[in-house]
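Morning!

This is the sequence you dropped in the shared folder:
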Amino acid sequence: MKHLIYFTFIAFSLYSCVSEKPESVDFEENKALIENYYKEFNRHNWKKMAGFYTSTALFKDPSLGAGIHRMKQSDIVKKYSELAELFPDVHDEIISIYPSGKKHVIVEFISTGTAPDGTKFKLPICTIFTIEKGKITKDFTYYDNF
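The structure's back. Tokens below.
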């Protein structure tokens, strides 16, 4: 009987060593990815930023119109290059990054910039990123686009 209890304890111990990573580890990895993403955004390094996405990702963004849009990395580079033409000093400041399960990260941030006519904007935005295998597969962004 002692051997059975001992064997059971060893089996459970070994199982716990090889079981899935805790959610907090996934969040820390995903948070680091998102922080690097915004660092490249603020450098206007669109090609490197687009590399954080899978080859094709799903987007929901008021600037793209209603519904969900499939975008390739080259489409992402084009979208943000055009944004920087309109607002050459566009900059995002992260307010907070929130975990939401193993695959989702919610980012609250403020986007600022200046239009060619000198008009400045300050826009609060929230984005829900879905991250799988170290790449962004979905980027669902919400803001007031009146």
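Headline: DSSP finds four helices and six strands in the chain.

More detail when I'm at my desk.
O.
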